[in-house]
Amino acid sequence: MSDENQLSIPETATEAPKSEAEVEDFSKLLGEHEQMLEKKSFEKGMNVEGVIVQIGAEYAYVNIGAKAEASLPVSELLNPEDGKLTHVVGDTIKAKIVGFDASGIKLSRSMRVGNIALEEAYQSGCAVKALVKATNKGGFELEVMGQRAFCPLSQIQKGKVEDPASLVGQSFDFKVIKYAKRGHDIVLSRTALQDDENRMKREEILSKIDVGAVLDGKVSSVTDYGAFVDLGGVEGLVHVSEISYQHVGNPKDVLSVGQEVRVQVLAIDTVKGKTKLSLSMKRLEEDPFDKLVSGIEVGSRVKGVVVRNVDKIGSFVDLGGVEGLVHVSELSWDRRLTNPDDVVKVGQEIEVTVLGINEEKRRVSLSYKGVAADPWSSVEEDYTVGQEVSGTVDSVTNFGVFVKLAPRLTALLPMSEIDEAHKALSEAAAGTEVSARVIAIDASRKRMTLSTRAEGAPAARKRAPRHDEASDAPRAPRGERGSRHEDNSYKEEAKFGTFGDVLAGLKRKK
Q1: DSSP E strands, 185-250
Q2: Is residue 465 domain-shared with residue 441, that is, in the same domain?
Q3: Is residue 60 part of a domain?
Q4: CB 109 within 8 A of CB 94
Q5: Residues 332 and 391 in one domain
Q6: Is residue 189 in some structural domain?
Q7: 493 three-class SS
Q8: CATH code of the domain in which 263 resides
Q9: Do 476 and 488 belong to one domain?
Q10: Cα–Cα distance measured from residue 505 to residue 462, given in angstroms and rounded to the nearest whole number
Q11: What are the distances in angstroms from CA 269 to CA 200, 231, 275, 318, 361?
Q12: 228, 242 in Cβ contact below 8 A?
C-alpha cells in the first residue's frame, strides 16, 4: 500500500488522549478510507454474483464478497404479474453495481429505471426482465421498464417454438441487442443472453480442464465419425477410433444419446477462436495389445474374425481387441488376387499365421495362405513331364492360355504349343475345359508349361500380330491385366518354349 493511502496512527500509547471530537473525526476518516478501498475493488458498472442473506421491506442484502452486504431493491425480486417474491434467502443472483453511498454498494438487477437504464443495459450487456405482452408477425411484443420492445421468434428460445401464444404473459430475462431512435426501436433477445451465460460457464469449466483429466459426462449426440459428450456445459468429441480397442464400425452400435460415459481428455485445441476437446474412452481400458503380444510368438497360429476388407490392401482381422493385417499377397497363393472378398468375408472366423509384431507401431502382420500348404512346394512330386493333365481356362493372353489345374496352381499353354485341333482355345472363355500334356516344370519359379501337340510333332508357327490386329488380340479379363500372367518370365517362356520355335525363327532370317 502506498504512503498516501496510509493512515497516520499513533505509534505509542504514551501520547495524550484524544478528545471526543478528535475520536469522532478519526472514525469518520477511517470509514472514508475503508470505503475508498472498497470502491477500488468494486467499480460502478461491474457485473457481480452473490448470495441473498436478508430480505427486508424495501431492500434485500446480498453478500458479494465486500466488507458489507450490498443492497438491492426488493421490487427487483418481485414477479410483475402477481407481485410475489421470485427469490428467497440463500439464492444466488447476478446483478450490476450502480453506485455507492454511506451504507455501501448499491445493486440493480432488472434496471427498471427507464430509457437511461435501458441504454446502459444495451451498452453493458446487462440482463433486463421483460414481459411477453403479445405475438405479432415474426415475433413477440414485449414490455420492458415501461417501454415497448420486440423479440424475434428465433430469439425467444433455443429450438423451434411449437406454440408462441403459450409464452404470452410470462416474464423472462433478456439481453438488449438493439437500442435506437432514443428508445423507440428496442430489440431484445433471450437466446443471446443464454449464449453469454453458456459462454461464461464454458470458459469457467475449460479453465479447470487439463490434458489427461478423467471426467464423467453424457453422450449428447452420435455421428458416423464419433460421439459428442457433454461434460457439464462443455462438449468434446470421442472419435470412432477412440471409443474402444474393439473394432467399432458405427458408433451408434455401441453408444446412445443420454448414455453416461467416462472419458479422458486427449487434447485441447483452439481453432478459429473456438476451443475443441478431443476425448477418449478406450484409453481408460486395459490395452489388449500388451496382453496379446505376451501370449503369441512369430510363427504361431491364432484365430480371429475378419472385420473389414480393403481392395488391394488386404483383410483386417480382430484378434481380440487388436487388429492384425493380412496383406493381399498373404491371402492366397494366387498372386493375381486384388480383392480380399474373393477369399474371405467380413464376419468370417479364420485361422492365421503371425508373421511379425511391431510393438513400437503396435501392428501385427498376419498370413492366411501360410495356413494352407503351397501347392508349388510339391509340384514336382505331383506332376511329371509328359503327364496328361486336365484343367479349365483361367485367362487368355496374346502369348498363351493360362490353365488352372488345382487351387492356387496355374500352368501356361503357349500359343505355339496349341495344335490345329485345339486352336479355338486361343479365344476360349474362362472355365472352358482343357486337356494337355506337361512339357516343362520349374518349381523354383512356380512355372509349368503345357502343350496340346502330339509328342514329337513340330511346333506351330506363331505369327506376330500386325499393328492393326493388336487391338483384336485376346486379352485377360478386366481386373486381371497387369497380373503375373503377363510378366516377362512367362512371355520369355512362351517365346522360347520349344526347339521348333527356334528353328522357325532361323528359317525366317534366311
Answers
A1: 185-189, 214-223, 226-230, 235-239
A2: yes
A3: no
A4: yes
A5: no
A6: no
A7: helix
A8: 2.40.50.140
A9: yes
A10: 10
A11: 18, 16, 6, 32, 25
A12: no
Residues of the chain with pLDDT under 50: 1-16, 33, 37, 111-114, 462-489, 491-510
Beta strands in 68-213 (DSSP E): 70-73, 92-101, 104-108, 127-136, 139-144, 147-152, 171-180, 185-189
pTM (2 decimals)? 0.44
- 398 and 501 co-located in one domain: yes
Residue 101 included in any domain: no
Instruction: Tell me which residue of 104, 77, 111, 80 sits closest to 91, measured CA to CA.
Output: 77
374: DSSP letter: P
Query: Is 385 found in the same domain as 345?
Result: no
375 by Cβ neighbours in 10 Å (0-12 / 13-18 / 19+) ranks as: middle
Residue with the three cell numbers 518354349:
497
Residue range(s) defining the domain that contains residue 336: 288-371
Q: Are residues 393 and 483 in the same domain?
A: yes
Q: Please check whether residues 292 and 277 belong to one and the same domain.
A: no
| Polymer length in residues for the chain | 510
Residue 164: per-residue pLDDT: 93
What pLDDT, on a 0 to 100 scale, did the predictor assign at position 205? 85
Measured between alpha carbons, how far is residue 201 from residues 27, 234, 251 in Å? 42, 8, 29
Is residue 173 in a domain?
no
pLDDT at 240: 94
Chain-centre distance for alpha carbon 343: 32
CB 327 within 8 A of CB 338: no
Residue 145 makes CB contacts below 8 A (sequence gap 6+) with 110, 111, 112, 113, 114, 115, 117, 118, 128
Work out the mean pLDDT of the chain and round it to a whole number. Answer: 81
Residue 315 shares a structural domain with residue 346: yes
